[in-house]
Amino acid sequence: MSILIYSVATLGTLGLIYGLGLAFASKKFHVEIDPKIEEINEILPNANCGACGYPGCAAYAEAIVEKGADINLCAPGGDEVIKHIAEIMGLEATAADNKVAIIHCQSGGKDNTHLRYIYHGIESCKAAILVSDGPNACNYGCVFQYDCVRACKFDAMHIDDNGMIIVDKEKCTGCGACAIACPRDLIEMVSIKKRVHILCTSHDKGAISRKVCGNNTACIACTLCVKKCPVDAITMENNLAVINYDKCIVCGMCADVCPTSAIFDPLKEIRAQKKAATKVKAEAIKKKIEEQKAKENKEDK
Question: In sequence order, what are the residues at sequence separation of 6 or more whose Cβ sits closer than 8 angstroms to the Cβ of residue 207?
Fold first, then answer.
């Protein structure tokens, strides 16, 4: 019995000593945390996506207060979060340049590419690439194991019936998690203001690109877009047309002259329809003028 009492007393004494030691240490080495950090951390979305360039929301909040980091780096939070941070920091709110994920490849669909083989391995893009550079005949294209879709925390990426990856621009926050997950760097965060995109990353020569990529979607390095661009926003780099988004004025002229579907512009079809309607109207006016002249010549005779 005495041994039990002794053991309990010893443990109790040690617990008391350690408790007092920890209490003293917490007071002695206490680091004051600026309340602004906690306030900002509370209004951040806590997605910890890394779009701001910091390890997580807490680290970003600390960087804003202690290091003067820009307050408009939280893509998921958007303008609303920027407004609240500006109020806390006593700064002027600056609108964020909202970005969305652009997939520079159209070979993700089962009908949009030719296959080397049918892949039945681990459902991972990185794993698929390790097997003879992946099932896609294009060494630069998507291997459709959808690491990017699984990486998206905002349900902004979906797979359609053809196996193509579709980005929901309404849900996409531009966090960049999908881009990090893609082992072939096919995904880029681009300003939502830019609507013209080159959806290809192949550096193969035109003849090879046409052969391995289905549905005429590859860049064939014809340079027509480079010659047509009025602001020199497109350059040809190792057989691939590349857009400088800082220079691009979104005129869509490159998409109009592209002989394949490598350059995407949602307004291309509308411009084509207007052009066709204008041509029909011009031909009708020309015909009417010719008929009028024929009538006048007949009357003169």
Answer: 220
- Work out the average pLDDT over 105-130: 86
pLDDT tens-digit map of 6-21: 666 676 676 677 666 6
Which domains can be identified in the chain, with CATH numbers? 35-89 (1.10.15.40), 98-193 (3.30.70.20), 217-289 (3.30.70.20)
Q: Which residue bears the tokens 């579907």?
A: 261
First-to-last alpha carbon distance for the chain, in angstroms, is: 140
Residues in the chain: 301
pTM above 0.85, yes or no: no
